[in-house]
Write a structure and sequence with these properties.
The protein is of the alpha+beta class. It contains three helices and five strands; from the N terminus they run ββααβββα. It has a five-stranded mixed β-sheet, covered by helices on one side. The longest helix is centred in the last third of the chain and has 14 residues, at about 80-90.
Length: about 110
């Protein structure tokens, strides 16, 4: 048997469960065995994105002693789109060069 932790965080709260599972348990099996899906109805069990210690892993990742399985929520916004919008706003406000997108030349 090995000890693991399963965590799920929302902007205002976090749920963390420590459990003991048999050697050879996968990340997905660990999530199911922990019972966190029943405690947190926000989790979509059909579309789990999992990580272990801040590194994304596949559902069939074999757990090791002391692993912390993290259940990730879907992104609210596409990071590329958000960065593109910030760059456009900076150009409009004069904080970035309109041609290169870099810092404007100081004269």
């Amino acid at each position: 048997m090995i000890n693991i932790e399963v965590v799920f965080a929302l902007p205002t709260t976090a749920t963390s469960l420590s459990i003991e599972v048999p050697q050879g348990t996968t990340a997905e099996q660990g999530v199911i065995q922990s019972g966190i899906i029943e405690k947190c109805p926000e989790i979509d069990p059909t579309a789990l994105t999992l990580g272990v210690w801040n590194r994304t892993v596949k559902a069939n990742y074999e757990l090791k002693e002391g692993d912390r399985i993290e259940i990730y929520r879907p992104l609210i916004a596409d990071p590329k789109d958000a960065r593109r919008k910030r760059a456009e706003k900076a150009k409009e406000e004069g904080r970035a060069n309109k041609i290169t997108g870099g810092r404007p030349l100081e004269r």
